[in-house]
Amino acid sequence: MFVLLSHKLSTMTPAYAGGPSLALRPLKQIAKGDSSNSYIIEMPNHLGTHVDAPRHFDPSGRSISDYGIESLTFKRPLLLSIQKNDSELITAEELKAYEDKISGADMLLIKTGFQRFRSSDPERYSLHNPGLSSDAAKFLVKTFPKLRALGLDTISLSSADHREDGRVSHRILLSGRDFFIVEDMDLSMLTDSPKLVIVVPLFIEGVDSAPCTVLAEV
């Protein structure tokens, strides 16, 4: 059985730090006499559930369209529940408690519980999200060479209230290596680690990263 770990996109999708969201503009409308319905879709490439590729913070890194689906398939995903409140950062000390479990994983999914505010309080979700500390990022890179991806149920790995530290965390994880960060995930369906996770991005040439559909086998 597969479950969806990505949110549906809409004009109400919250954007990081209150940035621009999705806009829809009708191109053709049957109601106006056209032969079909179609739309022009305008949105930032880091809106909704999306995957950061190395080029996002490393000018020499690969863009998302440079990867095949085999690089975005994870056969040893691990789910951790590390509950966080507004603007709190996941620390290296918290991750060290799960060192044995993380050592065998190729994808780490962190369920902070902050996802509960995505619909009920999107401004809070957008402006005061938890994040991953730079010390935690250093710990992951140094300790777990088999780890290839990190996914979170927060709008970004970078807390909007700790942006500079979040930028450092991104650089540590993405620079000089093939690594992926999946942000704004829907982890509400998971109570345990899935058997398999597949990340399917929009393979758009010329951009660093892209919105994605994430499937998990449970």
Task: Please give the structural blueprint.
Blueprint lengths: L1 E3 L18 E6 L9 E5 L7 E3 L20 E2 L2 E5 L7 E2 L1 H5 L2 H4 L4 E5 L5 H4 L1 H6 L3 E2 L1 H10 L5 E4 L10 H12 L5 E4 L12 E6 L8 E8 L1
Parallel strand pairs: 6-8, 7-9, 8-10, 10-11
Antiparallel strand pairs: 1-13, 2-3, 4-11, 4-13, 5-12, 12-13
GO biological process, one term: L-tryptophan catabolic process to kynurenine
Protein name: Cyclase family protein
GO molecular function: arylformamidase activity
Give a brief description.
The chain has a single domain (2-8, 45-217), classed as 3-Layer(bba) Sandwich (Glucose Oxidase, domain 1), CATH 3.50.30.50. The chain contains 6 helices and 13 strands.
Describe this structure in words.
By secondary structure, the chain is α/β, with parallel strands linked by helices. It has a single domain (2-8, 45-217), classed as Putative cyclase (Glucose Oxidase, domain 1, 3-Layer(bba) Sandwich), CATH 3.50.30.50. 19% of the residues lie in helices and 25% in strands. The protein has helices at residues 92-96, 99-102, 117-120, 122-127, 134-143, 163-174; strands at residues 2-4, 23-28, 38-42, 50-52, 73-74, 77-81, 89-90, 107-111, 131-132, 149-152, 180-183, 196-201, 210-217. Strands 1, 4, 5, 6, 8, 10, 11, 12 and 13 form a 9-stranded mixed β-sheet that branches. Helix 5 (134-143) packs parallel to helix 6 (163-174).
